[in-house]
Amino acid sequence: MNSLLHFFILFPILGFVVSLFIPDKKETIISGATFGFVGAHLLISIGFLGYWVFNGAPTLNQKDIVLFKTEGYEFFVDFLFDRITAVYLFVGALLTFLVTLYSRYYLHREAGYKRFFNTILFFYIGYNIAIFSGNLETLFIGWEILGISSFLLIAFYRERYLPVKNAVKVFSIYRIGDVGLILAMWASHHLWHENITFLKLSNYELVHEHLQSHSVMGVFISLMILVSAAAKSAQLPFSSWLPRAMEGPTPSSAIFYGSLSVHLGVFILLRTFPFWEHQLSVRIIIGLLGLVTSVITTGIARVQSSVKSQIAYSSISQIGLIFIEIALGFENLALFHFAGNAFLRTYQLLVSPSVVSYLIREQFYNFSPRKRSIEDSFPRRLANTFYILCLNEWNLDSLMYKVLWNPLKQIGAKLNFLNLNRVVLFFIPAYLIGLLSLLNKSLIPVNIQPYLPILFALLGLIMVLKSFTERRKTQMSWVMVAMNHFWVALSVSFNEQYKFDEVVWYLSGVVIASAIGYWCLSRLKGFEQNIDLNRFHGHSYKHPKIAFVFLLACLGVSGFPISPTFIGEDLIFSHIHEDQIVLASFTALSLIVDGLAIIRIYARVFLGPHAKSPYEMAYRSS
């Protein structure tokens, strides 16, 4: 039975590969192939679930490919199937099937018809990898695929300003969740001294033994998992991204932000529950977070003028309740609640275009407001204050900008003195000096050595901050992103013996992908002359092949699981010691900004309204 787990991953991959080779204009074949693969996957899933239940519903675990192994570290793919996976598999397969059926007609004659179905199948690959994952590393593979497919679907109408801007905004929140998961893996390696599987986490004696002597690290891992779950499931303070994600087509809104992707935060909490089950402080934080999110987003949902935004905030509120249920230990209730909320929100979003027309008609002929509501029991001043706050969505967007993005932009603005000549004249010689110091480490005073890795990591962070705020020279911004990875590799190599083959694993993907990306930008500049980062240029309209190749280069540089850099990033954190919080923070922050800078370059150069369009268009939208 264990060997059957591979099928649930390989079959969607086969469907995705087949869909890539179907001509763009063959709508019937494109939708039919997607419908066939997803439908077959659903039927086989139902059959497998029946067979699994008939055999006593055993927990299945399959250790699969070992991607990298050293003396103290092993990166392997592991699959797990239990009741949590069973519920997510059934709900995901059925809803993807229904949304695929709906999309065949909803997107008829849409310019990006093939692109939409390709992305749906790509999403389905990531979803299945995530729910079948047996360890954090395998979960992270699916997690990353879900993140990039979300970005592509929100920016589906890529000729418009607002969908592209919101796609970048959503990706920025996802990036925080990604790094939360990376830090959880880093601390987990030091706690267990191995690549721990979720099956081992269910062993109470093993968990209790390790947490007795490392309680602080246990709390840190749990909080990093909570950060990832909150970012993915749009809990406070990250709630504002979900309504912005509704800029994509209605079917993608239904399957992503109403049902499946938005509940992945719930999944990771359920999957890691045996680890933090006996950490009372963590359970209280999760419960309080869910409670506050539910109260605030319920109020926001009640004053929304857009039906999709109302559904989005209502879904966030229900997920907050699911967080409370998990914190209280009601795992089965949380699974049942997830299934009910997923089905309801998918239905509501799919019928939302029709509902709007019905409500307009009812408003003119049959509408009568309620005589009393719950707010009437509040003091008038409190009710009015709550109403205004909900209208402003509690300024969650402004909060994220003030706390996270504006400080980064302000720091980056102070680096405007850096240009390509100064980078070459200062940072490249500095890097060569750092390499010489690494090769002659014994000559450096012992009291200085602990600070050099932090210095190198800080220089890498400066590179990527400058790249994130650069507005004129796109190629320089791209080069600085690549240089950041070299500084990080030097920092970790100086910190601990970083073997040559591990450096090759990490930097080989960066070198190849950054060279391809630079070639794409140079070729595009030869065609279009101006490719600055001051605005969205929309060059994918005239140069779709260059846009596609550059997107692959972006994924390779950012550590997406298509290049060795994906494993290399995990290797990096395995060489940062558990007491080196500053170094880990600098490295994690550089990876966050690195991903944002890369996706910003891609969006500004290739997405948005075309810069040379002869027609007038609204550049910005309300």
Describe the structure.
This protein has 622 residues and is mainly alpha-helical. The chain folds into two domains: 362 residues, no CATH class; 193 residues, no CATH class. Helices cover 72% and strands 3% of the residues. It is built from 25 helices and two strands. The protein has a two-stranded antiparallel ribbon. β1 and β2 form a beta hairpin. The longest helix is centred in the middle third of the chain and has 35 residues. The chain is globular. The model has no long low-confidence stretch (mean pLDDT 84).
Task: Summarize it.
With 622 residues, this protein is an all-alpha fold. It has helices at residues 5-20, 27-54, 83-106, 113-132, 136-154, 161-192, 198-201, 204-213, 215-232, 241-244, 250-259, 264-271, 273-276, 280-302, 307-327, 331-365, 380-391, 396-413, 420-439, 452-469, 474-495, 500-528, 544-557, 565-574, 581-606, and strands at 60-69, 74-81. The protein contains 25 helices and 2 strands.
Question: How are the elements arranged and paired?
Answer:
Elements lengths: L4 H16 L6 H28 L5 E10 L4 E8 L1 H24 L6 H20 L3 H19 L6 H32 L5 H4 L2 H10 L1 H18 L8 H4 L5 H10 L4 H8 L1 H4 L3 H23 L4 H21 L3 H35 L14 H12 L4 H18 L6 H20 L12 H18 L4 H22 L4 H29 L15 H14 L7 H10 L6 H26 L16
Helix pairs in contact: 1-2, 1-4, 2-3, 2-4, 3-4, 3-11, 3-16, 4-5, 5-6, 6-9, 6-25, 8-9, 9-12, 11-16, 14-15, 14-17, 15-16, 18-20, 19-21, 20-21, 20-25, 21-22, 21-25, 22-23, 22-24, 23-25
